[in-house]
Give the backbone structure.
Amino acid sequence: MQKLSPRNIKNSVILHRGIVGLRSALTSSAKFSTILNSPDAKVLYEQHSADTFEFKLNNPKVLNSIDVEMVDIVCQKLKQWNANASAAPRVALISGTGEKAFCAGGDIVSIYNAHIGKPGFDKSIKADFFADEYLQDYELVNMKPM
């Protein structure tokens, strides 16, 4: 199996690690405006142009650790693009809010809390997170070239 990397993911998907210069170039003429979501959402969106779309991880309190809800939000958009390749952008950016981190990875604290049965944490998170995250990876790899 080939290792996933920005070079071999189809359709020029770029994993953007908070490069300020690139963000400035993309948003210099307008404020970062979100579409399809509220400012409090865990994942924000912006359509920079017909060819450029940005997912912005928005959970800086936990260093933008990705949870099941965030995976589902991104995966839903990827599935739409895979169903209709003409609507898909040529470039999809993933960035993060906050000053400390782009993304700390998976939200293992929630997974651990669910595992030990801490109140307020659904035990299904343990299985759902990894299954959903792998589906998201699959959707990324299977984006149709334009």
